[in-house]
Amino acid sequence: MRHALSLLLASTACIAAPAFAQDMAPAADAAADADSAGIIVFGRGETRQVQEITTRDLTTLTPGTNALKAIEKLPSVNFQSSDPFGSYEWSQRVSIRSFNQNQLGFTFDGIPLGDMSYGNHNGLHITRAISSENIGTVRVSQGSGSLGTQSTGNLGGTVETFSMDPADALGAQGNLTYGSDETWRAFARLSMGSADGIRGYVSYAYGSTDKWKGQGTQDQHMVNAKVVIPVGDGKLDGWLSYSDRREQDYQDMSMDMINRLGWKWDNTSPDYAKAVLYADIGNNRGETGAPVSNAAAGTVYPDNVTSVWDAYYDAAGLREDWLGAIGYSTPLGDHANFKIKGYYHNNSGMGLWATPSVPSPTGGSPLSIRTTEYDMDRIGVFGSVDATIGIQTLEAGAWYENNKFNQARRFYAFKSRTEAGLSFRDYPKNPFATQWEFDFTTDTIQYYVRDKVDLGMLTINLGWKGFKVTNEAEAIVSSSFPEGKIKAEDWFQPHAGFAVELSPEAEIFGGFTQVTKAFASATTTGPFSTNQAGFDQIRDDLKPESSDTYELGLRYNSSRFNGTLGAYLVNFRNRLLAVQVGSPILGLASALQNVGNVRAVGIEAAGDLKLGQGFGLYASYSYTDATYRDDVLNSSDGTLVAAIKGKTVVDSPKHMLRGELNYDQGPLFGRIGANYMSKRYYSYTNDASVDGRVIVDASIGYRFTDQIEVQLNASNLFDKKYISTIGSGGFGNSGDAQTLLVGAPQQFFVTVKAGF
């Protein structure tokens, strides 16, 4: 099947972005006509840089693909993942204008998702909140985003995802996907309701794929349900989702390992005996120093291995989430509106790793399973009131959240030296040791005020937001990590912007935004990742990170061409850096450092051109110059730790260029897109980097009827060998580090879609 699909895709010089079923399509944008192949919505009337990706674009990707992979075509968006779907959480990273993932804001239907990190201390990943087939719109603000965004971490941009509304009639849709590495995915949705009454849908999705190298499986069960209920002039809306995701990990690499062991090097599983041998040889190189080896193993590793860290036996991430929300919105007379939504999120999960550093106390194995375990209960509410008075629209809103988060480090025993007796796809039981366990409580209060003034050709936005976030840690099982309380508070973060209409098609926009970022509540990041003495020293004086963003740009919207051109300047202050001590996989305490300021300047351009006869062309380009403004100094004596002043920010490519040709006319549709990214550094002193690369993806499909279609997708069409994720184990000051993940090779998928 691989060769047949390759020939079919290669023979097609066009690509496209169809909308499959009516109940999937979002509301049409005013700038797009009915037969348009355009898929990008540029922010007409906005006073900041903003774009939207709609359902029509998401449907061209392989079903189950992370929605964040769809936004990588937008200017200044750097998205990376080592799997073709962009859903493998250990490898998934997104940065915007050089700001990394934990400095961005993410929401789903307004519900805060936190920073969507692998450790998920304050939220959950979007792929565990909603199936891709149920997404209506993804909105990206490359600056700090809207004042009303429920986020205290959006220093450098926001990504807002919105579920599609239910159809107003009975309908159903089913998708079935099969492809490379035994990928299977099934999706089914039932919609029902009426235009003037209750509307809703419920869906179930299951996806499973073997790892493209090594052995292991990544799969997920997900249920989504949404309902909209008219109540007088207003409406109630409800959301409920459940996700059970289990993914076995790929091996973290360094450039030395890639050169020495090859691109397809991975964990040793299912060869448990080899993992035991590696651990025996490297017995005194772990965190305990205890001799646990079999002396007969010798001192020389086989397979060109030079360190026990070159290959783990196995590793995995297990996550289970419940997310529910109820909202109410209603007009207040003819010129005002009120909205409110409450939500609840429960998460249980763990990251597992077969460590050669701690032996099992029974059975004689030199290995054990080390876990980082997560339990989270978040409850919150947010709302707003707006009123139009003459030329002014006044708006005020607030958000409150209480997050109770438990995090623990535990160890579980293997059965013996010859039999593992434990599966990395299941939650282990009966730990033989708990290294540490903490309860974290985070209380967030945020408000905003905004005034939009419409002067005809000129629109002005003025406003500010403020917050107070209190973080508290309490040890259940004590360790070197600290206990105590710390808070971040900034009640006035101003926003100002303007948009000037030059003609019915063209407008100039610009603005200024100031944002402060709250601290994190976890042992793995933020002020609680240091020791007690370090925490006590910084708790009263540590300044939170903050940024000032200046933007200026031009938009043009017509029936044939939509585009944007912009420039920005960002001054980033009080940058905090937690530097790992020892190998990142060991999970030792980090030393929190203030590395000073960063300045980023850049240019962004994007355009969507309708060529006629069903053809469309999209392209975007971004130039980013992000540099550290200060060297890293020892906070106690002022000595130089790392000379990084003037160096480029890690994982910040200077050039990103994306192009896409699409076609959609009659029964045939297709798309081919190329993604170029220049060199990226993965050390702060810029002495370690990965080369630039071009990745090409494509899709082609055929509609047999209005209800049945088939779609073929190819990822990495020309089988490019490249590094996808950098910084999987953090970033070091200098030198090659085991913090890289290899990108997936050429893969093909076929999907059949049916509906009524």
UniProtKB/TrEMBL annotation:
Stated family: Belongs to the TonB-dependent receptor family.
Domain TonB-dependent receptor-like beta-barrel: 265-717
Coiled-coil portions: none
Keywords: Cell outer membrane, Ion transport, Iron, Iron transport, Membrane, Receptor, Signal, TonB box, Transmembrane, Transmembrane beta strand, Transport
InterPro entries reported in the protein's UniProt record: Beta-barrel_TonB, Beta-barrel_TonB_sf, Plug_dom, Plug_dom_sf, TonB-dep_rcpt-like
A GO CC annotation given for this chain: cell outer membrane
Record's bilayer topology term: Multi-pass membrane protein
Signal peptide stretch: 1-21
Broad class of where this protein is predominantly found: membrane
Organism, as annotated: Sphingobium scionense
UniProt protein name: Iron complex outermembrane receptor protein
Molecular function GO labels: siderophore uptake transmembrane transporter activity
PROSITE patterns linked to this entry: TONB_DEPENDENT_REC_3 (PS52016)
Annotated compartments: Cell outer membrane
